Amino acid sequence: MGVIAARGLVKTYGSGRAARRVLDGADLDVAAGEVVAIVGRSGTGKSTLLHLVGALDRPEAGTIEVAGERVDGRSERALSAFRRRRIGFVFQFFHLVPELTGEENVLLPTRLPGAPRSAPAHGRELIERLGLGDAARRRPHELSGGEQQRLAVARALVLDPPVLLADEPTGNLDERSGAAVLDLLRSAATADRAVVVVTHEPRTSAMADRTVTLVDGRLRAAAPGSVGGA
Ligand SMILES: Nc1ncnc2c1ncn2[C@@H]1O[C@H](COP(=O)(O)OP(=O)(O)O)[C@@H](O)[C@H]1O
Ligand SMILES: [Mg+2]
Fold first, then answer.
1. Hey, whose CA ends up nearest to atom 25 of ligand 1?
2. Is residue 103 part of a domain?
3. What is the pLDDT of residue 230?
């Protein structure tokens, strides 16, 4: 079943002669259980695309459906509620809250309006299952990059969203911690969840079911095993 269906996405930055059309009719389909890697040169619009799919930003044209619901054309308020329920986002630089412990960071989304009452217990289970018990008791500055990123993935998964989006999640990690994060992302692609990872690392592409390349504002299928454009 298609969890993500984006059609004809257009996004321009700047205006007049400085206008730059970064996305120009991009289509993306991702099924449940699938991990899709998006590759492409720096500045081609990969982050922009992920932000549109994750409802952090809006396209000028095109449609986006996530888990059967339209993302485009909602009010700001409806969008933020939508994001909380449907999207988990992982960033290159983790974005954990420095004043909070690992556990408090993971549980942060469970304190937002609309979170199920069972969510904190689920979050603690997730921490245990991912082997993050020690990291969860510490603050981010006491942790390695890999531990911080695994906590960030746990935080993105705590409300059990149907879509997990990760923007260069291993870009700041060494080989070994990067591999642990990739394992985690791979295992997050369960029967009812789709995972999209932006990357320029061959190892990320290698663990994905499919790789697509962003060129000239559109996504194209990449040859298996290739990291076209990276
Ligand atoms: N908020 C913004 N305002 C103006 N230009 C932007 C903005 N965000 C991104 N861009 C530009 O759009 C292009 C695509 O950016 P981005 O999506 O970050 O690419 P990528 O993630 O593939 O490196 C780049 O040229 C970038 O400078
Ligand atoms: Mg980027």
1. 43
2. no
3. 42
